[in-house]
Amino acid sequence: MERSPRGRTRDGSRPARRDVLRAGGLMLGALGAPALLSACGTTASANGAGNVLRVSQPGDPKTLDPQKQGDMVSMNVLINMFDTLTTRGRDNQLHPRLAVSWKATSKRTWRFTLRPDVRFHNGEPCDAHAVAFSIKRLLAPATKSPIVELRYVEDVTVIDPLTLDVHTTLHDPILPAKLSLFGGVVVPPRYLSEVGDDGFARRPVGTGPFTFVSWQRDHELRMRAYRDHWQGPPSLDGLVFSPAPNASSSLASLQSGGVDLVAGLTPDAAQQLQGYSGVRLDGHTGIRTSYLSLNTLEKGPLQDRRVRQALNHAIDVPLLIKAVLGGKATETPALVPRGAFGFDPTVRPFTRSVDRARALMAEAGYPHGFTTTLTASNVDSNVAEALSGLLAKAGVHAPVNLLDPGTYAARLTSDNRGALGPLYLAASTVWTMDGQSIVQSNVRSDRRQSRWHSKEADRLIDVEELSEDPARREQAFSDLQRLMREEAPFVFLYQLDNIFARNDRPHWKPGSAGVLAMQSAEVSQ
Amino acid sequence: MSEVTLDEPPTRTQTPPRGGHRARLLRTILKRLLTALFVLLCTATVAFFLVRLSGDPVKILLPPDATAQQESALRASLGLDRPLLTQYADYLWGLPRFDFGDSLVYGQPVREILADRLPATLELAGAALAVTLVIAIPAGVFAAMRRGRGSDKTVMTGVLLGQSTPPFWVGILLILVFAVWLHALPASGYGHLANLVLPAVTLAVYSVAVVARLLRSSLIDVLTSDHIRSARAKGFGPLKVVLTHGLRNASLPVVTVVGLEVGSLLGGAILTERVFSWPGVGQLTIEAISNRDFPLVQATVLFFATTFVVVNLLVDISYSFLDPRVRTSR
């Protein structure tokens, strides 16, 4: 009897103690009272768990208006709230999503048939009118959209509630692929007219598998499962995205149980994690493709095909992947990555041999090598230094010139093809999964970053870009890769893996583009 | 010689304005306010032109395969194709109305974005200030009372260590120990009290050192003065002497430095926020700079400048209340 009142008094005093803790709690960490606070810490992390998947990636979405952003970090979040017309499966093939079928009805028209009975989270129907509205909104200058995929689209016509025609200025064979991500998001016209652009960005409404709950910038974005999704409800109850710009802090949250899955890791950050208990590392062949661009337009050694081949022989890509990237990349023989339409597996990579490289250079009149510079963005400094070292072995002295990413990007997109110097290290994410997008900006002689002009290559690109027949396109891609393998206007490097670190709760597999669509994800509790 | 020119012209001191101390105080404050406004105008101008030297935000906003037409269309819709001076005039015209324009990246008014993030940064800096005072004052007093002894040296060495360790390193160490090893506190996040502890301590470490060391030396100075000796002679205990007679007199330089620390706590939050993924103005600033989000960079720079200026102003004003000599000398 004595005990129970005392027990109750203790219970009664608990809130008081918590208040004291609250008031003076700031000093506790420093005074080393982890025991007192440990209860607090565990409840905090337990609150986030349950049947909820917590994902962290390096950044926060720029905006929740899917048509006003053009970066993967934003898209990774938004793809869970919005559906696109088409989608890429894990088999890298294009699959129906909001559109059930599509065909080119003429050289410049694509006809899409939509899935019936799809509704937005607010109940508004998602029909041809909504799709037409979405495409027109994306193209309207007032939207200030940074999305460039629909550049050839000039008009959309609604045929009936479930059919629409997309008209382009020239034949665009990969338009359906371009509608699988940035270009293909469908937004609700009625809701937008009710709440305006700002209201929409504050409380986005889509047709996707998750509905918006709350967003605190740079902290966390919460979503709830959308039970009435046309594909059936996702198996997760909720989804939380949080940004962690610093890789070591995101890994610390993973180890301390704050998040379940860390995406967007660089190979060197992932290597820090090797061997920690409770942390698993998954690498999946990705689509981000790296290469060295060579300026063949300016007088100098790079104009000689033998020198360009020599550089390719000199750079031991498998060694680079093993030593610098922890094995988390795959060699790419001729610019187009495996998994993308147009990749030709019969094109072999160069044999890696310093002797072969020296012999070729001597043949070209550079027995003692030459001096040049290798420009790179400072995020790629490790790889750039390693490349420079490998080139030096073959007598090519190419000190590394590192630029901040902003300056690098500005020079890459400037009209001056030489702005990044004779050799620069670049990478391109081929998210349309079509070889066109990497060839697009780099090869055809009228493109801004084209630094190798070949009539034959131009012809093949025209065939590849404008043909309706996939077999003809594939043949053109094969011929183009063979030509590029021979002429070596680039040093072909590798495609990076998508690296995910996770605890043992999540079960999920990404596609090659590494998009964080979490509809199929499950967690074990 | 040059100090003379800094003083007020003798003619004015000869004919002091009516109203005595209070009016003179008001006049000083007014003068300080005008100087502060001028400083802010200069900062705003420098920020405006400097950020535009860094390059073109449109290049970052658009993917590399965008066409030149798409670029110029976006540039026009963001208003970046207008003459520089027009943009500058627009920007200045907006400032008095707290209109910082729309963020180029987020497409939202900068004012709203800042208002979103401000509470988190203020909370962090406030907590860090609390930690600073709670640790630094006892540490300083303790060390001053035991000056020269082993315990003084231990405390001061610890404090010096804190001052010479970079905050991001302290942060990573704390995360490693308290989050990863002990699982006692979350490594990052926002919203719970537990989330606040590690970043606040990280941010406070440097200020603790600065304030504790200054308080110690200032107290030692005061403790050797005559009035303390007479207080001792009256038979007061050492702690009472320090607390009643010493602290008030030693507080003047400490208040100055605490004021300056408030400014650097807010600014220092940039790194700490990065390490702990804290959703404050610091993180926002880094993002804005790397995106070349001109309006946002300008506004965050102005925000940090304003806090420094305001804190300095408050420190100056508080002087005249803490130290009668400042009042009478004017």
Quick take:
The complex is a heterodimer of chains A (525) and B (330). In chain A, α10 runs antiparallel to α12. With 525 residues, chain A is of the alpha+beta class.
The radius of gyration of chain B is 25 Å
Number of helices, where a helix is a run of at least 4 consecutive DSSP H or I residues of chain B = 15
**Helix and strand sequence of chain B:** HHHHHHHHHHHHHHH
User: Given the helix and strand composition of chain A, which structural class is it?
Assistant: alpha+beta
From the spread of the alpha carbons, the general shape of chain A counts as: globular
Biggest interface, chains and residues, is: A-B, 67 and 72 residues
Q: Radius of gyration of chain A from the CA trace?
A: 27 Å
Q: How many runs of DSSP E, i.e. beta strands of chain A? A: 21
Helical amount among residues of chain B, as a percent range?
over 70%
Estimate the helix proportion of chain A, in percent: 25-40%
Query: Approximately how much beta-strand content do the residues of chain B carry?
Result: under 5%
> Overall 3D geometry of chain B?
flat
Compute the average pLDDT of chain A.
87
Report how far apart the termini of chain A are: 41 Å
Number of DSSP-assigned strands of chain B: 0
What this model shows, in words?
- Chain A is α+β, with helices and mostly antiparallel strands and 525 residues long.
- Helix content of chain A is 34%, strand content 22%.
- Chain A is built from 17 helices and 21 strands.
- Chain A has helices at residues 3-24, 28-31, 34-48, 72-78, 128-139, 175-178, 189-202, 247-255, 267-271, 305-314, 317-323, 354-363, 381-393, 405-412, 436-442, 455-466, 470-487; strands at residues 52-57, 86-88, 94-96, 99-106, 109-114, 153-160, 163-168, 210-216, 220-225, 238-243, 261-262, 280-294, 329-331, 370-371, 374-377, 396-397, 400-403, 423-429, 490-502, 506-507, 522-523.
- In chain A, strands 1, 8, 9, 10, 11, 12, 13, 15, 17, 18 and 19 form an eleven-stranded mixed beta sheet that branches. Chain A has a four-stranded antiparallel beta sheet with strand order 4-5-7-6, with helices on one face.
- The longest helix of chain A is centred in the first third of the chain and has 22 residues, at 3-24.
- Chain A is globular.
- With 330 residues, chain B is mainly α.
- Helices cover 78% and strands 0% of the residues of chain B.
- Chain B has helices at 2-6, 10-14, 20-53, 57-61, 68-77, 84-94, 110-145, 150-164, 167-181, 193-223, 226-233, 238-275, 281-291, 294-322, 324-329.
- Residues 1-17 of chain B have low confidence and may be disordered.
- Classes of the chains: A alpha+beta (525), B mainly alpha (330).
- At the A-B interface, helix 1, helix 2, helix 3, helix 7 and helix 8 of A face helix 4, helix 5, helix 7, helix 9 and helix 10 of B.
